Amino acid sequence: MIESEINKRYCQSCGMPLRFDVEKYLGTNSDGSRSDEYCYYCLKDGKYIVDIPMSEMITD
User: Which of 15, 18, 36, 44 sits in a 20 to 30 Å window from 6, CA-based?
Assistant: First the structure.
């Protein structure tokens, strides 16, 4: 396995790979800082912006 694949981190909500090289792709915490756990599709200003049950996120 490639080293970069081993160290890759994913959004804890949707599973999208997190891109730390492009800050705007990271979600934002309530204090305006960038989240290191969630993507911009899932977290904005410390609030979840996606209200989808996990069962709907999982695809066959």
Answer: 44
Beta carbons within 8 Å of 19's beta carbon, 6+ residues apart: 25, 26
The C-alpha atoms of residue 38 and residue 44 are separated, in whole angstroms, by: 9
For residue 1 the two structure tokens come to 């396995």
Q: How far is 26 from 10, CA to CA, in rounded Å?
A: 11
The 10s digit of each residue's pLDDT in 5-41 is: 667 899 998 889 999 999 899 999 999 999 999 999 9
Contact 48, 40 (CB under 8 A): no
Measured in degrees and rounded to the nearest 5, phi and psi for residue 43 equal -135, 125
Cβ-contact 39, 27 below 8 angstroms: yes
